[in-house]
Design a protein that fits this description.
Length: 953
């Protein structure tokens, strides 16, 4: 009898393994220098698609599971459900405890997230390559074993979290509801694109846990999913692991391709709404077009670039440069079922949206007369080629593209197809799509109106949504049953780790140019690109001696992006786009920074344009007046954004309004008005220098190749710039206080709870150690404050604590956007967490978790060109030794609980905190008054509203 049972088990095991075998259906290799992502594609008997891409350049792996379901599979009354379900997928499964998914990935030194759009939902982990099996086990567990772990409590917490996400990203943000209003009025009632992915609050309130379970059963079967694995892996090993963990999961109901009729507008539809957070109105014009991968996709993208993509575009030239509009942009967005061509304009003060609409239509007439040039086509092709190449810098970028192409086009190898589409675009194609989709065609025209400015509307509302012809779709939710996989192994056993990968810090070189410019570089030949960063001393701190014109450095950088002696700004932009390059000038705390991105083949021509940009600027009165006006309006607009207000005010509270660190680097309305064109010219003549200038080079270029090409930098004048010595002395804090800033009707309260530590950046000293100490408190998703406020209470979309530091000063800050009605309760919880950590310190299990997480994440830190550039830039900026990472790892390995606890006690100090809360005073003040803290009311500039002037405010 025992032998018969044993034989039966062996036979069942054989059939289970055979049933799970994946079939190779496609293998793509690179031929020559073609732009392609090599991969192998398999299909399992249960319908699961597997794509594997091998990339052994870095010891990392990305696992992505994409389900072909997004908000387009929802229905009236149940919007937002696909995104809500994304949150629920992180709440544990049969063999993974609540919050354990995040913890396991973080403990492995990895990162993770998920995203939902109209057409698909994906989940992904990026980890050191030795963690591959564990990631596949995690993803398979929630695909096949989710529902029994779903509880009403988890459901309610995540429902609250999604509401907070909506509040933070839509309801509490200027122009945040514009896309929602446009979609609702563009598509017919009930059309799957007529609501946003985030959904409506009333619909989120309406659904229950059974709706969630049915959604999982209907859409989350393996036959509606693609598993994509990329990185330092062996394809055969990946296939075996996917067969093991996913192969026995039962197939779900069949999912048919969605089909909808094209959108047809019978007239221009004018609609409007009033936005609580804006000072300037916005005009949003949307034309319906075609679905993704349509033959007109590239031509529409080219048309959008010509009309509103950058400062050489038609709308920029006719609206922004003439100071009729603050911003003017055009976008072509194509989705699986439909496409949208959007024209968006923010007028200058005094202009109505009716004025803007007339100007937009006049601009289209001008474009029609101008036509499309050979140079326009060349510019589009150069720009798009660079975009595709830059998108392949990371394993993540390649995996995301493979997964999206497979899910939405059924073909992972779409890069070649899209490149051919772009390279085949002609002038005639662009004019044809203009005539077919834009000229004389009807659009939805949304007026977004500031409170009290309803008269600036484009035209009276003339459209009401017709709800009479709606029939709810039958998605097949009736009779769904939950069937779990039957395995021949124990899924409850967590897979172990493979051998630890060898992580190599990027090799780099250092060299001083004859002018004593300091250069550092790292060769990276994975892609034919080059990144260059040039930092010239100056920036915000240079104005510490004369703060009356604060914002000068930022304004100067903006002017450096304008005309030169041999090129207008528009001509420069066209030349750069043709090369697939970019040159951007910006201002930082202590530098003017030139950032260059180029394809290797075009580096010489790009550097010639950089030389022109640096040495031949042409500062005109016209450009200055426009940029000064735009800056003033942007500053006014920022005062309506609670998150920006919170950041600005906490700086004032920490340092005082008269201290350079308490001032916005972009200036204020008073200081910007005082700046003249002569100030810009004087800045250039007095402060552009080779002395202490630093250059960072990363990419497909060797030291002996790039240095001769940078010889022109030796022509910078050798001027010694005396940067002001700024005492980073904060205002004295004798006790914790609440500083309340009123933003009427704000859906959330922005928290910035902070104290100045004075800890300057130190890669191997106490500053580095405070970062280790902070990890358990709020340095990641599993930090105490986030688990408490998001996962346990559902009051926020995310909460963090950070220790920041540079050469000058340092601070500790808690930040979060909190549901308005929970403001007082959340404040109490934050202070409770800070006090507990400062008093009791870190737990032993938290210490182990921190060491594991930080100790293994080096594999992810040096992958892309940008990451390598930031790494070696830090080495140059702070003159770090070549082995500083080894020193950090040694500190991490040996740090103890007593050391962590001492740092927490020393630097958190919960009784001496500046607590800036930006929100709706009417809603939050009564609760805060019961907290026992002194409350000081400030305006959006950080000044007291009662007129009493305490030093620093």
């Amino acid at each position: 009898m025992k032998r018969a049972i044993l034989l039966l088990v062996i036979i069942l095991s054989f059939y289970q393994q055979a049933a799970a075998q994946a079939k190779l259906v496609e293998k793509i290799n690179r031929q020559g220098h073609e732009l392609v992502i090599p991969y192998e594609k398999y299909v399992l008997p249960n319908g699961l698609t597997l794509i594997v891409h091998e990339d052994h350049s870095d010891p990392i792996v990305q696992v992505d599971v994409t389900y072909h379901v997004g908000s387009a599979r929802e229905q009236i009354g149940k919007s937002g459900f696909a995104h809500f379900f994304e949150h629920m997928m992180f709440q544990g499964s049969d063999h993974v405890k609540d919050e354990e998914h995040f913890k396991m990935v973080t403990d492995a030194g990895g990162t993770l997230n998920g995203s939902t759009n109209r057409d698909r939902t994906n989940y992904y982990e990026t980890v050191p390559s030795n963690q591959l099996e564990k990631m596949l086990w995690l993803e398979a567990d929630r695909m096949g074993f989710l529902l029994d772990a779903v509880t009403q409590q988890k459901f309610e917490i995540q429902r609250a979290t999604v509401k907070n996400e909506r509040g933070q990203n839509y309801d509490n943000r200027p122009y945040g509801l514009m896309a929602e209003v446009a979609a609702r009025n563009l598509y017919p009632y009930g059309h799957p694109y007529s609501w946003l992915t985030i959904g409506y609050i009333e619909d989120l309130n309406r659904v229950d846990v059974n709706d969630l379970k049915n959604f999982f059963l209907r859409w989350y079967g393996p036959n509606n999913a693609t598993v994509t694995v990329g990185g330092d892996v062996k394809t055969a090993e990946v296939v075996k692991l996917v067969e093991k963990y996913f192969g026995s999961i039962p197939k779900g109901p069949a999912v048919e391709k969605a089909i909808v009729s094209p959108v047809v507008l019978e007239k221009d539809r004018y609609v409007s709404y009033t936005d609580n957070y804006i000072r300037l109105p916005l005009l949003n014009i949307v034309f319906p077009t075609v679905p993704n991968y349509h033959k007109d996709m590239a031509a529409l993208s080219c048309l959008a670039q010509l009309l509103g993509g950058g400062n050489s575009s038609i709308l920029y030239q006719q609206l922004v440069k003439t100071q009729q509009a603050l911003q003017a942009n055009v976008y072509s967005q194509l989705f699986e079922l439909a496409g949208e061509f959007t024209m968006r304009v923010i007028p200058m003060p005094g202009k109505t949206l009716a004025d803007m609409e007339k100007l937009v239509r006049a601009s289209l007439d001008s474009f029609e007369k101008r036509g499309v040039t050979d140079e326009d086509i060349e510019k589009f092709k150069g720009y798009t080629e660079a975009q595709y190449i830059n998108g392949l810098q990371s394993v993540s970028g390649k995996v995301f593209q493979l997964a999206a192409f497979q899910t939405l086009a059924g073909n992972p190898n779409m890069i070649g197809t899209l490149l051919k589409m772009n390279s085949a675009v002609t002038k005639e194609d662009v004019m044809r799509v203009y005539n077919q989709y834009i000229k004389g065609k009807h659009a939805v025209i949304v007026s977004v109106l500031p409170k009290g400015q309803e008269t600036v509307i484009a035209a009276p509302d003339n459209y009401e949504i017709d709800k009479t012809n709606y029939t709810a779709p039958d998605y097949g939710y009736t009779g769904l049953k939950y069937a779990k996989a039957t395995d021949n192994f124990d899924r409850s056993k967590h897979p172990g780790n493979g051998a630890n990968p060898v992580v190599k810090v990027p090799a780099f070189w250092r060299k001083d140019l004859p002018s004593k410019i300091k250069c550092i570089g790292a060769e990276n030949n994975e892609l034919p690109t080059v990144t260059l960063i040039i930092a010239i001393p100056g920036g915000h701190l240079l104005q510490a001696k004369d703060t009356a014109k604060i914002g000068l450095a930022s304004l100067f950088a903006d002017m450096m992006n304008e005309d030169t002696k041999n090129y207008t700004a528009e001509q420069m932009a066209v030349e750069l786009d043709k090369l697939g390059s970019s040159i951007e000038v910006s201002s930082s705390r202590d530098a003017i920074v030139f950032t260059v991105e180029a394809l290797k083949k075009n580096i010489d021509k790009t550097l010639a344009l950089l030389q022109e940009r640096i040495f031949n600027p042409r500062f005109t009165e016209t450009a200055f007046n426009r940029i000064q006006k735009q800056t003033l309006e942007s500053l006014k607009q920022s005062k309506t954004r609670p998150a920006i207000v919170a950041d600005d005010v906490i700086a004032v509270v920490n340092y005082g309004s008269g201290h350079i660190f308490g001032m916005n680097e972009y200036g204020n309305e008073s200081s910007i008005r005082k700046i003249t064109l002569k100030d810009i010219e004087d800045y250039y003549n007095n402060y552009l220098t080779a002395n202490n200038t630093k250059v960072v080079v990363v990419g497909d270029i060797k030291q002996n190749e790039i240095l001769p090409k940078l010889a022109f930098l030796n022509n910078l004048p050798d001027k010694k710039i005396d940067m002001p010595v700024v005492p980073a002395k904060p205002l004295e804090v004798d006790k914790s206080r609440i500083y309340l800033v009123d933003i009427p009707k704000a859906a959330q309260t922005e928290f910035r709870i902070s104290r100045v530590t004075g800890l300057k950046y130190d890669a191997t000293g106490e500053y580095y150690k405070t970062g280790l100490m902070n990890f358990a408190l709020g340095g990641g998703f599993n930090g105490r404050v986030n688990i408490n406020l998001r996962e346990d209470k559902g009051w926020t979309y995310g909460a963090r604590t950070n220790f920041n530091g540079d050469e000058y000063t340092g601070d500790f800050t808690f930040s979060a956007g909190i549901k308005a009605d929970a403001t007082d309760s959340a404040l109490a919880e934050v202070i409770k967490e800070l006090k507990a950590y400062a008093t009791e310190g870190i737990k032993e299990e938290e210490l182990v978790f921190m060491k594991n997480a930080i100790g293994q994440r080096d594999a992810l830190r040096y992958e892309t060109g940008t990451q390598k550039a930031l790494f070696i830039q830090r080495m140059l900026q702070f003159n770090l030794p070549a082995n500083y990472v080894d020193q950090q790892n040694k500190i991490l390995k040996n740090i103890t609980k007593p050391e962590i606890d001492a740092l927490a006690k020393k630097y958190i100090q919960p009784d001496k905190l500046n607590m800036v809360l930006v929100g709706d005073k009417a809603r939050i003040l009564p609760g805060l008054q019961k907290s026992g803290y002194e409350i000081v009311e400030l305006n959006t500039d950080g000044r007291r509203v009662d007129g009493e002037m305490k030093k620093g405010f």
